[in-house]
User: Which sequence fits this backbone?
């Protein structure tokens, strides 16, 4: 077994054990932290397909994260008030929310991606940011769903066989989704599609010379990436019982990129390691000082200067990124 | 009816013209050697054929289709497999991923490429950047074959390699010829190139200066067009 695989398993085992161990030790709050870690790791795993494999620095993934959040909020609100949505009665069901979130984000990603993927480099970053800000302003002006106040979720959507009001059950759902996201990422990476996507990142002309058109491959990767991030967004809103406009705002996009860089760009376990470190720093440093992001900045600086492969690169070596 | 035909091709890098009228043709199953001193336009001709640079005028047709100014990936899909100068692999992909990315259905698969270059099979999970120069060259040829091209273009495939590796590469090229592949090859090693070639095209100052069979390329002609 390679070191990277061992590290991946160790990180996942730690994350899975965290709520159980801390609960037994009398710190139930850690279950919420672990859920937050799993959800952010899933969101970053989605982005890792675009950013890590495709080299597409999307500064607009907050839009997809937020669309997921609003999908959860909107479904919960309609189910709660027994108001039909598009003429249909809505059951308060998480799997339904995930499908809705993924479809809505996928559609937005297909449209914005078709335009923004014609650019590259800094223009791509700026145009994805612009689209995300459009979605943000649209959301805060949409009074029917909370406007600037966001959308509260009085009662979480349900999942068959589990009680989503119980923190541990919610954690297990988030963890299972993270596993599914990681499997998708891994399957993509070892497929012919993934090889072409990574090849296009390294040299567009060389890829064209072997008969591959980069654009459709990148578009599919971008859409898939958005769909996974949207499902994470839905879970994030469920966890907080609140779909906040800040989920759609640009600092969220930055946060997801930071998670990936901290953990290891393009690495399977990168987002998991990054999210675990990020949430721990946020919690521990946040309890010491309100300016905890100063120390996050220092950590990021350290990683960028001394450990280009992130945590995974530091521990498992042999970065896939050069 | 030739597979590839290039007529009166002219091309330029910005303001400086590099090709002033290149004519060449490659028939089905034929191996054509594209020759000339350094800077005479061999690589430029290849780049223009593959759509990697725009031509100024002239005609390029492949398999009966006009491919002049077509996008590079379309030309590649029509069946031109390029092994570029300087063995350009994807450094951060493994050998297997390099081959897989290029794969299109046909007789060339991971297995058949591995038969041609057993070394690649041994190194399949290694990153391309960790391969030796000769192995990278084998990978570049293997990758072009994985697209199952109707025409293989080899640009300086043995340049800068150790003699034993060169022999391996030439053995592979002869095997490809015996297999009936159509090949356009640029190389400086006359002793290896001439026996393989069915026809030679010599470029001088961006123009086709001479075309003929390798046995017609006398020492005098070689000295005039290729000697240093």
Assistant:
């Amino acid at each position: 077994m390679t070191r990277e695989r061992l590290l991946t398993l160790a990180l996942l085992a730690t994350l899975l054990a965290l709520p159980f161990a801390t609960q037994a030790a009398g710190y139930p709050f850690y279950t919420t932290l672990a859920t937050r870690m799993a959800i952010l790791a899933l969101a970053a795993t989605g982005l890792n397909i675009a950013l890590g494999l495709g080299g597409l620095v999307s500064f607009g993934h907050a839009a997809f994260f937020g669309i997921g959040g609003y999908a959860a909020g909107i479904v919960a609100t309609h189910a709660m008030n027994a108001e039909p949505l598009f003429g249909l009665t809505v059951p308060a069901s998480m799997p339904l929310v995930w499908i809705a979130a993924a479809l809505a984000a996928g559609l937005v990603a297909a449209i914005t991606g078709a335009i923004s993927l014609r650019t590259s480099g800094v223009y791509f970053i700026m145009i994805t940011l612009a689209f995300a800000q459009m979605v943000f302003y649209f959301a805060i002006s949409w009074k029917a769903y909370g406007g600037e106040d966001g959308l509260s979720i009085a009662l979480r959507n349900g999942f068959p066989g589990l009680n989503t009001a119980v923190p541990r059950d919610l954690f297990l759902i988030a963890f299972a989704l993270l596993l599914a996201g990681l499997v998708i990422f891994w399957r993509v990476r070892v497929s012919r599609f993934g090889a072409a996507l990574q090849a296009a990142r390294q040299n567009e002309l060389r890829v064209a010379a072997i008969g591959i058109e980069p654009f459709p491959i990148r578009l599919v990767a971008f859409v898939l990436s958005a769909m996974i991030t949207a499902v994470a967004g839905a879970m994030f809103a469920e966890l907080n019982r609140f779909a906040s406009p800040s989920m759609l705002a640009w600092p969220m996009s930055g946060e997801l990129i930071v998670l990936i860089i901290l953990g290891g760009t393009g690495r399977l376990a990168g987002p998991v390691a990054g999210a675990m470190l990020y949430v721990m720093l946020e919690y521990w440093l946040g309890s010491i000082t309100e300016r905890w992001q100063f120390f996050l900045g220092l950590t990021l600086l350290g990683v960028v200067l001394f450990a280009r492969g992130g945590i995974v690169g530091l521990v498992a070596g042999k970065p896939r990124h050069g | 009816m030739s597979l590839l035909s290039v007529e009166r091709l002219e091309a330029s890098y910005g303001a400086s013209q590099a090709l002033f009228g290149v004519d060449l043709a490659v028939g089905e199953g034929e191996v054509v050697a594209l020759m000339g001193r350094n800077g005479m336009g061999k690589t430029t001709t290849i780049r223009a054929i593959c759509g990697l640079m725009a031509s100024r005028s002239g005609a390029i047709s492949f398999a009966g289709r006009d491919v002049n100014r077509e996008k590079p990936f379309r030309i590649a899909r029509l069946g031109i497999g390029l092994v570029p100068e300087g063995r350009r692999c994807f450094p951060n992909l493994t050998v297997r991923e390099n081959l897989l990315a290029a794969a299109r259905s046909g007789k060339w698969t991971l297995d058949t490429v591995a038969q041609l270059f057993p070394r690649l099979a041994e190194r399949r999970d290694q990153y391309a950047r960790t391969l030796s120069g000769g192995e990278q060259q084998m990978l570049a040829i293997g990758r072009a074959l994985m697209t199952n091209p109707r025409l293989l273009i080899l640009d300086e495939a043995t340049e800068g390699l150790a003699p034993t590796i060169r022999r391996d590469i030439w053995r592979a090229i002869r095997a490809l010829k015996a297999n009936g592949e159509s090949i356009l090859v640029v190389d400086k090693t006359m002793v290896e190139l001439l026996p393989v070639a069915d026809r030679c095209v010599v470029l001088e100052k961006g123009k086709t200066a001479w075309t003929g069979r390798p046995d017609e390329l006398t020492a005098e002609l070689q000295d005039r067009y290729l000697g240093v």
Notes: The mean pLDDT of chain B is 91. Residues 11 and 17 of chain B are 6 Å apart (CA to CA).
